[in-house]
Write a structure and sequence with these properties.
Layout lengths: L12 H20 L14 H9 L18 H13 L5 H17 L2 H12 L5 E4 L15 E5 L2 E9 L9 E7 L11 E7 L5 E7 L5 E14 L3 E2 L5 H13 L3 H4 L2 H11 L5 H30 L3
Parallel strand pairs: 1-4
Antiparallel strand pairs: 2-3, 3-7, 4-5, 5-8, 6-7
Helix pairs in contact: 1-3, 4-5, 4-6
The chain binds flavin-adenine dinucleotide.
Length: 308
């Protein structure tokens, strides 16, 4: 049986100093009326705020300076993200690119992909969507039918992606496509591609939610040409790539801090003389957050030590 251990992490002095800086920045932006703190703020899309984060060095924090990054530690990055989420800041425009797409490009992209795309992400001007799900391929992602066929100098991609959050406002997406016919191993024969959403052969259509809001899209690729150097991680490596990418999506503080503003608001409404039941519930939520935070900072510590 595998044993999970979440060793406690002591934040180093530079990370503590950075926390004060980020808090000050968020407070100034709120005071200026640039945004109103909200829950689930990592889905609030605000390119101006992202650009300011880029100028302050809060995006691509761990990446090499050569590609616009800042060569900071995983724990410093953690502190910035934690403050942004807890403060309800609108980080949605750059969130996906910073959290996973940029990392995929840095680790598995060509030199052209790295040198042209990563600096834009780090500057808070290059945004990404996730092109995994399809109309008949949700939980069962290995059933993707989007097809990439080899042509001179690259690949011709056709198919439909769905639930593509924010693709109507982003510059790129990373698409998972089938590059060879299904084999016995249904996880073989898939490949990830960087798709530039401003180029021909791609159209983005809105899917409105029950409230009439527009976050989701359907993205139709119809003979989209992706050059060979926009393949990530090698042809046929798609399954390994998406599962690795999802690990970055799920290990950070995003999910449990999404509702932190709600907790603050509940405490404000309940006031300083809570009845026994309210005090109990607030205590329960705070205990959950403290435990999840310890696990999540511990994961950041493991990333820092290279234990992954
Ligand atoms: C807020 C949000 C944002 C999203 N953004 C993106 C995005 O940007 N890009 C992207 O690619 N995707 C995105 N998705 C899609 C998401 O990650 C899932 O892939 C998708 O929602 C699941 O597929 P489906 O809706 O087709 O459901 P299905 O796969 O059809 O599942 C329907 C139900 O059947 C159950 N089920 C499925 N298979 C089995 C099984 N074998 N045994 C038992 N039960 C089963 C599921 O648990 C579920 O309850 C987003 C989803 C949400 C909710």
């Amino acid at each position: 049986m595998h044993e999970f251990r979440f060793e406690p992490v002591q934040l180093p002095a530079p990370a503590q100093a950075l926390r004060g800086e980020v808090r000050e920045f968020i407070a100034e932006e709120v005071a200026k009326g640039a945004f109103t703190p909200c829950s689930n703020s990592w889905s609030s899309f605000d390119p101006d705020f992202s650009r300011k984060c880029g100028e302050r060095g809060y995006i691509g924090m761990r990446w090499p300076k050569q590609y616009g990054g800042h060569e900071r530690s995983a724990l410093e990055r953690y502190v910035v993200n934690e403050e942004m989420l807890a403060g309800g800041a609108p980080v949605g425009a750059h969130w996906i690119a910073d959290r996973q797409s940029g990392h995929q490009i840095l680790r598995y992209g060509s030199e052209r992909a790295k040198s042209t795309i990563l600096p834009k992400i780090a500057a808070g001007t290059g945004f990404f969507a996730i092109g995994m799900s399809e109309p008949d391929s949700g939980s069962d992602l290995a059933a993707v039918r989007t097809r990439a066929t080899q042509v001179e100098g690259g690949w011709n991609i056709s198919g439909t992606k769905v639930w593509t959050s924010n693709a109507h406002q982003t510059n790129y997406l990373i698409a998972l496509a089938r590059t060879s016919a299904k084999e016995e191993d249904r996880h073989a024969g898939m490949t990830q591609f960087v798709v530039d959403l401003s180029r021909p052969g791609v159209s983005v259509r809105p899917i409105y939610n029950l409230y009439g809001g527009h976050d989701f899209n359907e993205v139709v690729l119809d003979g989209y040409f992706a050059a060979d150097d926009m393949v990530l991680g090698g042809v046929g490596m798609g399954w390994k790539m998406v599962t690795g990418e999802l690990a970055f999506e799920r290990s950070g503080p995003d999910r449990f801090l999404s509702t932190f503003q709600l907790l603050l608001e509940s405490i404000r409404v309940i006031g300083v003389q809570p009845d026994a039941r309210s005090a109990n519930e607030i205590g329960r939520f705070v205990a959950h957050i403290a435990t999840l935070r310890r696990m999540s900072t511990s994961v950041a510590g493991m990333l820092e030590r290279g234990a992954w």
